[in-house]
UniProtKB/TrEMBL annotation:
This is Type I restriction-modification system DNA methylase subunit. One of its GO terms (biological process) is methylation. Gene3D superfamilies: Vaccinia Virus protein VP39 (3.40.50.150). Pfam families: N6_Mtase. The keyword NADP does not apply. It comes from Bacillus benzoevorans. Residues 11-45 form the DNA methylase adenine-specific domain. Residues 56-84 form a coiled coil. The keyword Cell cycle does not apply.
Protein backbone atom coordinates (compact mmCIF):
# COMPACT_ATOMS: atom_id res chain seq x y z
CA UNK A 1 0.00 0.00 0.00
CA UNK A 2 2.64 2.48 1.03
CA UNK A 3 4.76 1.86 -2.05
CA UNK A 4 1.75 2.04 -4.35
CA UNK A 5 0.82 5.39 -2.83
CA UNK A 6 4.37 6.75 -2.68
CA UNK A 7 5.33 5.81 -6.23
CA UNK A 8 2.04 7.04 -7.65
CA UNK A 9 1.93 4.15 -10.10
CA UNK A 10 -1.86 4.10 -10.04
CA UNK A 11 -2.21 0.88 -8.07
CA UNK A 12 -3.13 2.59 -4.81
CA UNK A 13 -6.75 2.78 -3.74
CA UNK A 14 -8.45 3.43 -0.41
CA UNK A 15 -9.59 0.27 1.37
CA UNK A 16 -12.42 0.79 3.85
CA UNK A 17 -11.32 -0.34 7.28
CA UNK A 18 -7.65 -0.44 6.27
CA UNK A 19 -6.26 2.67 4.57
CA UNK A 20 -7.30 6.01 3.13
CA UNK A 21 -5.65 9.12 1.75
CA UNK A 22 -7.21 12.22 3.24
CA UNK A 23 -6.76 15.96 2.95
CA UNK A 24 -5.56 18.45 5.50
CA UNK A 25 -8.97 20.09 5.21
CA UNK A 26 -10.69 16.88 6.31
CA UNK A 27 -8.23 16.46 9.19
CA UNK A 28 -8.93 20.04 10.32
CA UNK A 29 -12.68 19.29 10.33
CA UNK A 30 -11.93 16.63 12.95
CA UNK A 31 -9.88 19.05 15.11
CA UNK A 32 -6.65 17.51 13.78
CA UNK A 33 -7.35 14.20 15.48
CA UNK A 34 -5.41 11.42 13.80
CA UNK A 35 -7.42 8.49 15.10
CA UNK A 36 -7.47 6.08 12.12
CA UNK A 37 -11.10 5.05 12.55
CA UNK A 38 -12.27 8.60 11.88
CA UNK A 39 -10.92 8.47 8.35
CA UNK A 40 -10.57 4.80 7.49
CA UNK A 41 -13.89 3.65 8.94
CA UNK A 42 -14.79 0.03 9.48
CA UNK A 43 -14.95 -2.56 6.78
CA UNK A 44 -18.35 -3.85 5.84
CA UNK A 45 -19.12 -7.24 7.29
CA UNK A 46 -22.15 -9.00 6.00
CA UNK A 47 -23.88 -11.30 8.41
CA UNK A 48 -27.20 -12.82 7.74
CA UNK A 49 -29.55 -12.47 10.69
CA UNK A 50 -29.32 -16.20 11.36
CA UNK A 51 -25.52 -16.20 11.31
CA UNK A 52 -25.37 -13.23 13.65
CA UNK A 53 -27.76 -14.74 16.19
CA UNK A 54 -25.95 -18.06 15.98
CA UNK A 55 -22.59 -16.38 16.61
CA UNK A 56 -23.96 -14.38 19.56
CA UNK A 57 -25.37 -17.55 21.14
CA UNK A 58 -22.04 -19.33 20.63
CA UNK A 59 -20.19 -16.44 22.29
CA UNK A 60 -22.72 -16.28 25.15
CA UNK A 61 -22.22 -19.97 25.93
CA UNK A 62 -18.46 -19.61 25.77
CA UNK A 63 -18.55 -16.59 28.10
CA UNK A 64 -20.69 -18.44 30.64
CA UNK A 65 -18.24 -21.35 30.55
CA UNK A 66 -15.38 -18.93 31.15
CA UNK A 67 -17.25 -17.39 34.10
CA UNK A 68 -17.61 -20.86 35.62
CA UNK A 69 -13.93 -21.58 35.08
CA UNK A 70 -13.03 -18.22 36.62
CA UNK A 71 -15.13 -18.97 39.70
CA UNK A 72 -13.55 -22.41 40.04
CA UNK A 73 -10.04 -20.96 39.80
CA UNK A 74 -10.89 -18.19 42.24
CA UNK A 75 -12.02 -20.75 44.83
CA UNK A 76 -8.87 -22.79 44.29
CA UNK A 77 -6.71 -19.71 44.81
CA UNK A 78 -8.59 -18.87 48.03
CA UNK A 79 -8.02 -22.42 49.30
CA UNK A 80 -4.33 -22.26 48.43
CA UNK A 81 -3.96 -18.91 50.20
CA UNK A 82 -5.74 -20.20 53.31
CA UNK A 83 -3.39 -23.18 53.32
CA UNK A 84 -0.42 -20.86 53.75
CA UNK A 85 -1.40 -19.99 57.35
Amino acid sequence: MYRAYKTGDGNYKDLKGFCKVTTLEEVSKHDYKLTPGIYVGARDVEYGEFQFEEKIEELRIKLLEQFEESNRLQERIKEDLEGLY
